TrEMBL record:
Residue ranges of domain BTB in the record: 44-106
Gene3D superfamilies named in the record: Potassium Channel Kv1.1, Chain A
Top-level taxon in the UniProt lineage: Eukaryota
Name of this chain's protein: BTB domain-containing protein
Length: 106
């Protein structure tokens, strides 16, 4: 059985700068393996800081998985303009809320 991946992602903000996301993605057979890695902070090599002001959250992730599953991260992680601290890749995304990013990351 093959899974057909249909992606429809809409992100918008209201006047209070709250992000709203609508996503429609089928569940693929190996998604459980990736989800377990998301909750496992061992051996992560990237920290993504999202949000602004008092609503900032850090997400620890595996850059290889992000690059393999997302064209955006494939190029964003390879850019020379990213910050590296002690060998750790740091991406700052103040334009997206932690809740929105969590849904995208999952």
């Amino acid at each position: 059985m093959s899974a057909r991946l249909l992606r429809r992602i809409q992100i918008w903000e209201n006047s209070d700068y709250r992000n709203f996301v609508t996503m429609r993605l089928p569940k693929l057979p190996n998604m459980g393996n990736f989800s377990s890695m998301l909750n496992n902070s061992d051996d992560y090599d990237i920290i993504i800081k999202v949000g602004k002001y008092q609503n900032i959250k850090e997400f620890k992730a595996h850059s290889n998985i992000l690059r393999a599953r997302s064209q955006y991260f494939k190029y964003a992680i390879l850019k020379e303009s990213i910050t590296k601290e002690d060998g750790m890749i740091i991406l700052n995304k103040p334009n997206i809320t932690p809740n929105t990013f969590k849904m995208i990351l999952e």
